[in-house]
């Protein structure tokens, strides 16, 4: 039988405190989510009252601040002695959260972004004369579209999903018929199952000119040749002149290959508004940062519960002691929450100020070429926060400036060296690349090697593989696919 050995082992383990965990969660929240979370916390904690105190009426009992409770706990004094005993009915309290005001100043208002893609389609569906069953099936189809507005799934799979996931019996014929109705919605091309169908749907919506008729023939019968830019082959097959082929290309170039992308769905059917967490003003040559949408609420203990706590402290009754303990736990919970809010406020403010200082020239006039290369580590070093903390601050936060509203992620980019050895933002290089492609001769588009040489003449040292990478990020096709007649 094996001997059992006992021994001691020392392990160094770091654990996050409840305050740290709560602060991390709050830092990640954009201002809209934070406001909702504060409402929930106040509703869940009956001890706390954030309603403003009435002024000047000494006959009315008032709520007690948390600091006052702590002071009298330490001194041993009585709240009744200090604030008087009131035999009147305890005034009702509510949990209305008013610490962010009513946004009377227009610059504090929310900013609408484009309507939700799904919401737009459902709204159009509401105008169609359909049965309740048909509406349910059509709604399911709309929910199955991807971000580009395509239906990437086959009809039979949708029929199965309707039966197993939604408990709705349907048929392939019914789904196909309702999909045709959805394909009539705006934006044109929505509900297509592939690019060819998407382009055809948009062409069929157009006024039937000779160029549109020819474009329909090309997309319908010569789509593979069109994708590969085999224009001479298409002209030969369809007996089109060079002028007619140019008309076809002009028509197709105006089409949108991603109809769903016309409508922003970044919030996935939640409130479609951008609420800036920060505001930056430029006054008298100074950049002034503010966080106008949210301030730390001044929470107080509702008079009713402060008296319960006072009674429990002075009473010998077990029930009174238990009630006071409950109130004390709720007060401690509120104190942790307020401290986490304060830390969130300080973290966001320090991080945003560091970003502004780092990108000072850009924030003065909004000139994109003034953006310096900046990564999370740069701001972490300036603030003393962890990179993970900076990442949480940057995520889902927006700033309103005098030249537009931007997500904080916009200001971050890597850097490359120019011919002088200075580091320049990759965004600046991408902008130069885009300008070169936009200005090229479309009959003889620039190859990647020629783009490398062109950027070198502008002072940017970029490898060929980097050009290919940036082209992909900017949705710029290869030279062969950019060639026009």
Keywords:
extended, 3-stranded antiparallel sheet, 4-stranded mixed sheet
Major β-sheet annotation: 4 strands, mixed
The residue-averaged pLDDT reads 77
Oligomer: single chain
Q: Into how many domains do the coordinates divide?
A: 4
Molecular shape:
extended
Strand ordering within the main sheet: 6-5-8-9
Annotation, overall tally of beta strands: 11
Please summarize what this structure is.
By secondary structure, this protein is α+β, with helices and mostly antiparallel strands.
Any overview of this molecule?
α14 (303-314) packs across α15. The strands form 4 sheets. A 4-stranded mixed beta sheet has the order 6-5-8-9. Strands 1-7-2 form a 3-stranded antiparallel beta sheet. β5 and β6 form a beta hairpin. The protein has 4 domains: 16-110 and 272-412, no CATH class; 114-187; 192-255; 415-482, Orthogonal Bundle (Arc Repressor Mutant, subunit A), CATH 1.10.10. The chain is 50% helix and 7% strand. The longest helix is centred in the last third of the chain and has 41 residues, at 318-358. The protein is extended and about 100 Å long. The chain has 485 residues and is an alpha+beta fold. It has helices spanning 18-28, 31-44, 66-75, 79-83, 117-125, 132-143, 155-165, 172-182, 195-204, 210-221, 223-227, 231-238, 242-253, 303-314, 318-358, 360-365, 376-383, 387-394, 426-438, 448-457, 464-473, 479-482, and strands spanning 48-49, 64-65, 111-112, 273-274, 278-283, 286-290, 300-301, 398-401, 404-407, 415-417, 423-425. It is built from 22 helices and 11 strands.
């Amino acid at each position: 039988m094996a001997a059992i050995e006992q021994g001691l082992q020392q392990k160094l383990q770091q654990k996050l405190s409840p305050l740290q965990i709560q602060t991390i969660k709050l830092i990640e929240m954009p201002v809209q989510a934070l406001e909702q979370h504060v409402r929930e916390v106040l509703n869940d904690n009956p001890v706390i009252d954030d309603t403003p105190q009435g002024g000047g009426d000494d006959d009315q009992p008032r709520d007690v601040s948390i600091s006052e409770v702590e002071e009298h706990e330490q001194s041993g004094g009585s709240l009744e002695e200090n604030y008087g005993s009131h035999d009147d009915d305890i005034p009702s309290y509510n949990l209305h959260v008013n610490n962010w005001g009513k946004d009377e100043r227009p610059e504090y208002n929310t900013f609408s972004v484009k309507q939700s893609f799904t919401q737009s389609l459902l709204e159009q569906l509401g105008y169609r004369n359909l049965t309740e069953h048909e509406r349910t099936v059509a709604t399911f189809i709309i929910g199955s579209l991807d971000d580009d507005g395509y239906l990437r799934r086959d009809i039979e799979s949708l029929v199965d999903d309707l039966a197993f996931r939604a408990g709705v019996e349907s048929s392939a014929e019914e789904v196909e018929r309702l999909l045709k109705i959805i394909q009539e919605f705006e934006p044109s091309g929505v509900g297509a199952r592939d690019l060819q169908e998407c382009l055809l749907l948009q062409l069929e919506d157009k006024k039937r000119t000779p160029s549109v008729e020819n474009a329909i023939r090309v997309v319908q019968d010569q789509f593979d040749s069109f994708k590969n830019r085999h224009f001479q082959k298409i002209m030969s097959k369809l007996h089109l002149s060079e002028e007619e082929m140019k008309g076809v290309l002009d028509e197709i170039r105006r089409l949108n290959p991603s109809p769903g992308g016309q409508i922003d769905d970044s919030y996935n059917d939640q409130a479609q508004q951008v609420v800036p967490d920060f505001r930056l003003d430029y006054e008298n040559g100074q950049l002034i940062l503010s966080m106008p949408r949210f301030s730390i609420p001044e929470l107080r203990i509702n008079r009713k519960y402060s008296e319960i706590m006072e009674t429990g402290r002075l009473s010998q009754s077990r029930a009174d002691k238990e009630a006071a303990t409950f109130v004390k736990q709720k007060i401690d919970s509120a104190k942790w929450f307020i401290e986490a809010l304060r830390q969130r406020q300080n973290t966001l403010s320090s991080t945003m100020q560091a970003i502004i200082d780092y990108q000072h020239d850009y924030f003065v006039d909004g000139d994109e070429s003034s953006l310096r290369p900046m990564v999370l580590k740069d701001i972490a070093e300036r603030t003393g926060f962890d990179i993970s903390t900076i990442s949480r601050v940057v995520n889902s936060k927006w700033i309103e400036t005098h030249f537009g509203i931007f997500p904080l992620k916009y200001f971050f980019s890597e850097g490359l060296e120019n011919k002088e050895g200075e580091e320049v933002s990759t965004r600046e290089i991408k902008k130069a690349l885009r300008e070169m492609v936009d200005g090229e001769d479309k009959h003889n588009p620039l190859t990647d090697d020629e783009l490398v040489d062109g950027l070198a003449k502008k002072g940017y040292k970029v490898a060929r593989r980097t050009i290919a990478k940036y082209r992909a990020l900017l949705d710029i096709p290869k030279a062969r696919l950019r060639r026009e007649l």
